[in-house]
DNA sequence: CGGACTGTAAGATGTTCATCGAACACTCGG
DNA sequence: CCGAGTGTTCGATGAACATCTTACAGTCCG
């Protein structure tokens, strides 16, 4: 019957935090980690809603990966949506940029090595 | 004979890091701490070279304080100079801003609660 | 249904880091 | 030279966190 994108999954919906409710400290802490930094960067270089959690080339297991995405959600950086068995991601560019102007741009600059 | 600012103290000079040599990760990590955030903010609101390390109203002992200043120096955020028995500080606004445009401005905005 | 795939949850482990207390170094004024 | 003031270093402690392993909960396909 109902398809994935349509009806709605029976899975617990991911908890999202509005960037407006995020403190500077939380935002900086979220970005101050090599793995999460790479996630954000890869995400920024991909079309929206195209990357599932497992599609990232990071050197950690899926449990840790799940944790990192939880942190990114809590910082208002990433939005997630269930699409069949996968959970696809979107970088909340505009919303996050409205709350912290220039921060994402800064982090995404190639000049900024690790 | 030689006065403090002139001759040069016999004390170990503080180790400074050029903002140009600082990674994004280091910069974000340095700012992702409540005590250091407060130090930077207080420093930004004071004239240059007027604040000694002990003049900040932070809820930590002097040992921890010394550590935090070390981190801030390592991130290219603060410059220190010995002035008599005191060590006075300067926020490296322009230099840091050249390396990470907008980051300091963002952190100093009053709108950004802790 | 059963199995492959994807992600989350819980518990254990190890490391990093913020903090403190105490000892030390240096400067300056009596 | 001594003492007050200022800051650093060292060792230890405790908390936070990143990670793993294992177990579990969904979704989809045959």
Q: Would you give an account of this structure?
A:
Two copies of one chain form a homodimer. Mean pLDDT of chain A is 92; it is low at 1-6. Chain A has a three-stranded antiparallel β-sheet with strand order 1-3-2. Chain A has one domain (18-108): Arc Repressor Mutant, subunit A. In chain A, a hairpin with a 2-residue loop joins β2 and β3 (86-91). Chain A has helices at 4-7, 24-31, 34-44, 62-74, 93-99, 103-108, and strands spanning 51-52, 78-83, 86-91. Chain A is α+β, with helices and mostly antiparallel strands and 114 residues long. The structure holds a DNA duplex (30 and 30 nucleotides). Chains A, B: It comes from Streptomyces olindensis. Chains A, B: Residues 16-111 form the HTH arsR-type domain. Chains A, B: This is ArsR family transcriptional regulator. Chains A, B: Keywords: DNA-binding, Transcription, Transcription regulation.
Summarize the structure.
2 copies of one chain form a homodimer. Chain A is of the alpha+beta class and 114 residues long.
The CATH superfamily label of chain A reads Winged helix-like DNA-binding domain superfamily/Winged helix DNA-binding domain
Strand order of the largest sheet of chain A: 1-3-2
As for the CATH topology of chain A, it is Arc Repressor Mutant, subunit A
Structural class of chain A: alpha+beta
Low-confidence stretches of chain A: 1-6
Large-scale geometry of chain A? globular
Q: How many structural domains does the protein architecture of chain A include?
A: 1
User: What is the distance, rounded to the nearest whole angstrom, between the alpha carbons of the first and last residues of chain A?
Assistant: 47 Å
Number of strands of chain A: 3
CATH C-level class of chain A: Mainly Alpha
What share of residues of chain A is helical? 40-55%
Q: Average pLDDT of chain A, to the nearest integer?
A: 92
The share of residues in extended strands of chain A comes to 5-15%
Q: Give the quaternary arrangement of the chains.
A: homodimer
For the biggest sheet of chain A, the summary is: 3 strands, antiparallel
Which architecture of chain A per CATH? Answer: Orthogonal Bundle
For the largest interface, the chains and their residue counts are: A-B, 20 and 20 residues
H-E order of chain A: HHHEHEEHH
Radius of gyration of chain A: 14 Å
